[in-house]
Amino acid sequence: MNDDKPMGDKPLDDLAQGRPSPVSEGDSDKRETVQQPAPSQSPENVPVSTALTSEGTEVRVVGVRTGMFGVRGPGDTSGYGGLVKPVVFPGATQRPYGGWFDEVADALEARLAQTELTAAIEQVVVHRGEITFHVRREDLPFVAQMLRDDEALRFEFCSGVSGVHYPEDTGRELHAVYHLLSMTHNRRIRVEVSVPDADPHVPSLVSVYPTLDWHERETWDMFGIVFDGHPALTRILMPDDWPGHPQRKDYPLGGVPVEYKGGSVPPPDQRRSYN
Amino acid sequence: MATTTSTSEGSQDFYADPSDTSQGRVFTVTGQDWDSISQGLGDQAEERVVVNMGPQHPSTHGVLRLILELEGETVTEARCGIGYLHTGIEKNMEYRSWVQGTTFCTRMDYLAPFHNELTYALGVERLLDIEEQVPEKAQVMRVLLSELNRISSHLVCIATGGMEIGALTVMTIGFRERELVLDLFELITGLRMNHAFIRPGGVAQDLPPGALDEIRDFVALMKKRLPEYAALCNANPIFKARLEGVGHLDLAGCLALGLSGPPLRSAGYPWDLRKTQPYCGYEDYDFDVITWDTADSYGRFRVRLAEMHESLRIVEQCADRLAGLEGAPVMVADKKIAWPSQLSIGSDGMGNSLDHIRHIMGESMEALIHHFKLVTEGFRVPAGQAYVPVESPRGELGAHVVSDGGTRPFRAHFRDPSFTNLQATSVMSEGGMVADVIVAIASIDPVMGGVDR
Questions:
Q1: Contact between B83 and A4 using a beta-carbon 8 Å cutoff
Q2: Predicted TM-score (pTM) of this structure
Q3: Where is the stretch described as Disordered (chain B) (predicted)?
C-alpha cells in the first residue's frame, strides 16, 4: 500500500519501533534529525520529534499503526498482523514557504527578534496550501497579541480553538489549534500549541480574542486542556458534573450492541474495523 | 424555600429534583395565575429576580436556556446555558469512515445541512489533494444546493423570528416557501433534510430528469413571493418598532466576539467568504454582498431578505450552467475515492441501484471486490490537517479535519457560526427589555443542533 507517500524509506523503519534513536555521528549527513538541545526528562520540554524522508521532506512521527484489518491476536489470519507503520504528519517546512506565507513569517520573526522570544515559534509547517505556526505555550499570549495588532499581520478574527488528542505523541499529547483570519490582508493561518497530558495548561487567549470564551470552555470540556486565565472555565456542552473529557482518544465512544434478526452488532467502537 | 405550585404536602415532581440552590427563594412557574405568584412574593418584591428561560421554551429558538437577571422588566444580566442538544457527532465521526462522516455532520446545523457537508467535503478533498479534480458539474451542483439551502434557512429564520414576536403570518408564509425548497431537495437528493449528498470527491448522484425545470419554476415563483415579505414587513410600523435598535452590536463588537454572517454584514462590513475566499467556483457567479448600516435586528432581517434575492440570482446561473453540463460526471474519476455505486434515488431516500447490483453480483468479480473494499474499508486520507470554511447562512462554518493517514477521521471539529454568534447574547440584550431578548436572539438565528453538535 502506498498510502503514506511522504515516508517509506529506510530512516522511518526504525522510527516505527518507537521514538527516533539519537543520530550517530556516522550517518548524520543522511539523517538530519533536527538537533534539539538535550531534552530534560520532564514532560515539559519534549521537542518535536522529526525525521527526514529520502526526498528530504521532514515529517513528524506521532504514533504507530500495526496490522491492517483491526483483528488482534490468534484471530488474525490475514497475514498483515505483523505490519508496523509509523503514523507521520507533515513536519517542519524549510524556507521559502511560498506566496504570502513568507511575508507573514518574516513579519512575525521581525517582531519576535525585537523581543527576548526568538524561540517562540517551534516550527512552521506548510501543507496543502495552509500554514501552521507551532508556538511555545508560554509565548502564546504574546504571539497572539502580536498577530492581532501588528500592522503587517492584522489577524483580527479568530475562528476558534479546536483540540486534538495524540495519545502516542509522548510529551505533546494535547494540541490546541487556533484558526486565525486576517480580514485586512485576506489571509488565514493556523497556530498550534502542544502540551503534555501530565500538565495540560495553555494560557487563555480570551483577553486577546474574546470570541474564544466559549471555544476554550468547549476544549476544556472535551479534552481537559486547562486554559489559564480564562474568566470562567466551566463545562459548556456536557453536564457540570460529568466525569472525564469525551473527545479524548482514551474515552470510549459508548453504545450498546444492536440485535437484529437474531444477530448482534457490537457498538461502533468495538466492531472490527480497518486501521 | 417556597414554591407557589405546591398544592399539598408530599406532592413532588417526579421528573425534577428540588432545586439545590442555597440562595433566595425558588418559584416554580408552570403557567398558573400570575397573581398567585406576585402575591406570594409579598414584601420581597424588590429582590432581584433570576429567571430561567428555557431550555424548553417556544421563543428561545430551540433548546437554549437563558439565565436572565431582571430588575422589573429590564435585563441586567443575560447568560446562555447550552449543551442540551449535544449528541457527540464529532466523536462519532472518529469511528466511521470518511464518507460516512457526511451522514453525521449533515445533522449538526439541521437548517443548513448542505453547508455542513460542503465544508467537511472540502476539507477532506484538500487533504486528499484532489481539489482540482472535482468535476465542474459537482461544483455547480454544490453551489446550487448551497444557495437553495441558504434560501430555506433564511426563510426559517425570518419565519420563526416573526413568530416569536407574534407576527404569525410571517411564520406561515415563511414555512410555505421553505416547503417548496424542501420539495426540490427531495427531488434532487431523495431527502428533505440530512441529505449526506455532498461527499468527498463530488456529489452522490446526478440531477434527476426534470429537475432543472422544477428549479426554474421555483425561481419564477419565488421572485413573485419574496416581495411579499418586503411588503409585509419592511415598512410595517409594528415590525419595525420591535426590531429597530434592538440587539445592537457594532463592527468592533462583531470582530471581537467572532461574529460572522448576517450580524457582521448588518454592521456594514461586506465580508462574505463566497466573495473574499471563493470556493466551489463562486468567483464565476454574479452576485452582490448585502450590507446594512444599522447593526441591529432590523438590519439583519433586511440583510437576510436581500440575500435570498441574491441566492435566487445564483440559482438561476447554476441552472443555466447545468443545462450545458448534461451527462457530465459528478464525482472524481479516481475510482479509489469515488463511491462505487450510483445509488438510485427514490421516495424514501437513496437506495441501492439494481443495475449496479446486477453488475457486481453477476458480471464482474473485480467490481464486486472493489465495491466491497471501498464500502467496508473506505479510502485512506494522507495525514495532515485542513480547514476550509464556507459561508453558511449563519456565517463562517468550517471543519477542522485531521487525518492520521487512516480510513477514518482522526478528528473533525466544526467551527459552527451559531455557537460563536450566540456568545453575543449578553452584549445584545443586557440593559434592554425581556421581550427584546427574544428579538436579539432571533436576529442571531442560532440553530441549537449546530451550537451543541
A1: no
A2: 0.84
A3: 1-23
